Amino acid sequence: MTTQQQREVTALEEQLKELVQGSEVLRELDSSTLLRYLEIVNKTQQKLEKNEPPSIQMEQLLEDSDYITELSSIEKSGKATAKHTIESNHGIPQHEWSNEEKHLLFDKEIYDDLINSIGRKQEKIVNDSFDLSDDSGYRDLSSVSSKLFKCLEQLRKNYPNTSAVLDYIETSASLSLYSQYGEFQFPPILIAGPPGVGKTAVIRTLGKLAGIPFHQFDCGTFTSQFVISGSSRTWHSSQPGIIANAMKDCKYANPFILFDEIDKISANKEHDPYGSFYTLLDNEAAKNFKDEFISELTLDLSKVNFIATANDLSAIPEPIVSRFHVIHVESLTEEQSKSVIVSIYNNLLQGIHHKNRFEPILKAQVIGELKGYAPRDIKKVLLGALSNCADRNRKSKLPEKINTIQPSDIVHLAQEEERSMGFVWS
Q1: Angle, alpha carbons 236-239-243 (nearest 5°)
Q2: Do 213 and 246 contact (CB within 8 A), yes or no?
Q3: How far apart are CA 208 and CA 56, in angstroms?
Q4: Comparing C-alpha atoms, which of 179, 180, 183 is closest to residue 145?
Q5: 230 with 240: CB under 8 angstroms?
Q6: Which of 46, 256, 350, 418 has its CA 20 to 30 A from that of 129?
Q7: CA-derived radius of gyration, the chain
Q8: 244, 11, 240, 9: which is closest to 129 by C-alpha?
């Protein structure tokens, strides 16, 4: 084999390694299926090496019908019939998983019977707002994986003052490993603390990083329980509630549903806006949740992970508070603020295509200028500083190869009130 051919083979081997390392399906395979997958990898490598000259590229190989058929067979075997192995070295049980073992959100037969019996006018009302005709009624269950625990570790660095929340979620995830299918679930959580300390942001970010569906609802707009549990089809402009709508479009039965600032719900004696929470926050009652818009149909919401945030616990009815596991989150300390500034700066750099043209480490003087700001304002100021730094370098007669933010690039925000430390990350 010539030197050039050897280089091509080496390059192809690297592409093959990247393909294997980047394949998310490997996370879902048991040991026997993984070995079969590796067997294909070895055969692929042999096929590439035997080419004289080895001109075939990975892209061409992936268009080979026989190769794709074999890969597809392995993948289906792994997803549908293989054991779902939880990644751990501590004797964590394995879970049998198949396409039939999904969560039944609602009974499709009952829905079909309802549609066939309510008449054309009512059928149109239902189909216009809540069409389930192509829905099987089943939902997947998002299971616990090593990725989740890695995300929690990362969030401890980015949201250091929310460690109590992350610890609780981590221990709940560890217990979830022992459930029938390893599905991720925890009891309802109420995160309490002053405004801007990261109560909402940490949950939103966890959902995004871990690939868990996340739905957020602003409770300041709730004036009656109809917002949550829908209104009767006999009413003009009737609509399903926010929970039914969220679950209708969600692939999983155990998403994160967050009620932001639950203490801001407006009191209404005639239509208690807290009424639906008595059902949602009780696991047994949640198995039989009914939306008034389609009250003939029962929704099983027992797998949903409910979270709420609040600034003032005293504004929430005590029976509602008692249904949550309450966790308090405090403002950032000065040391925590430093790590958050660095984290926000790193995130901003990730959004710049030529990020390698900027100094990855902030000067101590720049960090000092930003201490005391809320993270949302830190983001604004740093973004402005990056722009000023780039503009200054562009205009310079001797431009720097690496753009470095200087204290002079910082433009402080004009604020009427004394700057307060918080943790809101948009």
Answers
A1: 155
A2: no
A3: 38
A4: 183
A5: yes
A6: 256
A7: 27
A8: 240
Q: Is 359 exposed, middle or buried (0-12, 13-18, 19+ CB in 10 A)?
A: middle
Measured distance CA(301)–CA(228) in Å, rounded:
13
| Cβ pair 151, 210 in contact under 8 A | yes
User: Cα(183)–Cα(89) distance, rounded to whole angstroms?
Assistant: 19
In the predicted model, what is the mean pLDDT of residues 154-176? 93
Residue entry with tokens 């109420």: 190
Amino acid at 7: R
Q: Which residue has tokens 């079909």? A: 112
**Type of residue found at 168:** Y
Q: What whole-number distance in Å separates Cα of residue 365 and Cα of residue 371? A: 10
Q: Would the pLDDT of 277 be above 90?
A: yes
- The count of C-alpha atoms lying within 13 angstroms of the C-alpha of 153, restricted to the half-sphere facing its C-beta, is 5
Per-residue pLDDT tens over the stretch 81-133: 434 444 444 455 555 544 445 899 999 999 999 999 998 999 999 999 899 99
Average pLDDT of the chain is 81
Half-sphere exposure of 423 (CA within 13 A, CB side): 28
Q: Which of 290, 295, 273, 181 is nearest to 218 (CA)?
A: 273
Dig out the tokens for 188 from the structure: 């309802």
Task: Provide the greatest CA pair distance for the chain.
Answer: 85
Task: Please tell me the distance from the alpha carbon of residue 12 to that of residue 49, in angstroms, as a whole number.
Answer: 9
pTM score, two decimals? 0.70
**DSSP label at 256?**
E
C-alpha to C-alpha distance for 315 and 307, rounded to whole angstroms: 17
The pLDDT assigned to 415 comes to 45
Other Cβ atoms less than 10 A from the Cβ of 42: the count is: 10
